[in-house]
């Protein structure tokens, strides 16, 4: 192969969370989920398959990938090599313009960009659905960074039926997501482990039972641009995911009674959101597998939200990143080498 392909993808923020798998090996989730791509953050990844190279070379943010990340990337390249029938090793260079492990799921944009760059570099042109299926195997939520805008991951029952598709394009709704980065250190318990342990929570089944209704409410509120229905549903849904995490059993770490992603700053922001709403600023929160808080508001309220945050942040020591709904994964460059 003599092609170097550079692809880009945005991370995505789940409005209805993915938490727990039916099949951990290929990330068939226990439930469908809904997300929006975060246009304010991008992963850029280039891939070239080269003959006569002994092993895959992987750099992330200009450093050799640490062993665990390296292993995940190589396993993903193996999937692409298998699909394309090639055996060459690859050179992969990936760059995030946002802090890795910041609570913005960098693995989603990483595996979406890698799937697109690697398949094209291997001479394949996959349809969106097949690309989403491939990205899902790298990191579940990565399948949602392939389509653009507002996206639903259909849980499916097997490899072919579990993929993400667009609900509405980015321009459908002028929303802003303000991601407050309270800490940049990697979380102690990965989301993969969280998915594996979810079923040990006594509230896991209750959450799954409630999800079909939550999904219907969030999907319809998005389509109708119904902010006052969407916001509270998204908040309660995030908290229900964290209730499952907090009550999961970690048999090998008996000193932990559950997975706590929240830190004091997380709770301070939840309380601030409630106080802002009481004063008429219609902002809602959601939280992924980390301490950071994503604040959702309508476009016209963004300046007021940033003003309110500026008062709060010096005390919390945080920084923030603003996103509007982003496009799906795309090819940024392609060159013969
Ligand atoms: O794709 P993963 O394994 O990083 O899981 C993502 C889990 C959450 O971010 C907490 C929820 C979600 O749906 O993105």
Describe this structure in words.
- The protein contains 8 helices and 16 strands.
- The model has no long low-confidence stretch (mean pLDDT 94).
- A 6-stranded mixed sheet has the order 8-7-9-6-1-16. A 4-stranded antiparallel sheet has the order 2-5-10-11. It has a 4-stranded antiparallel sheet with strand order 13-14-12-15.
- The chain is an alpha+beta fold and 337 residues long.
- A hairpin with a 4-residue loop joins strand 3 (21-23) and strand 4 (28-29).
- It is globular.
- The protein has 2 domains: 3-170 and 332-336, Ribosomal Protein S5, domain 2, CATH 3.30.230; 175-323, GHMP kinase, C-terminal domain (Alpha-Beta Plaits, 2-Layer Sandwich).
- The chain is 36% helix and 25% strand.
- It has helices at residues 67-84, 106-121, 128-138, 191-197, 204-224, 227-246, 264-278, 302-316, and strands spanning 3-9, 12-16, 21-23, 28-29, 33-37, 43-50, 57-60, 63-64, 89-96, 150-154, 163-168, 175-181, 284-286, 293-298, 319-323, 330-336.
- The longest helix is centred in the middle third of the chain and has 21 residues, at 204-224.
- Residues 14, 17-18, 33, 105, 107-108, 139-141, 191-192, 195, 288-289 line the site of (3R)-3-hydroxy-3-methyl-5-(phosphonooxy)pentanoic acid (PMV).
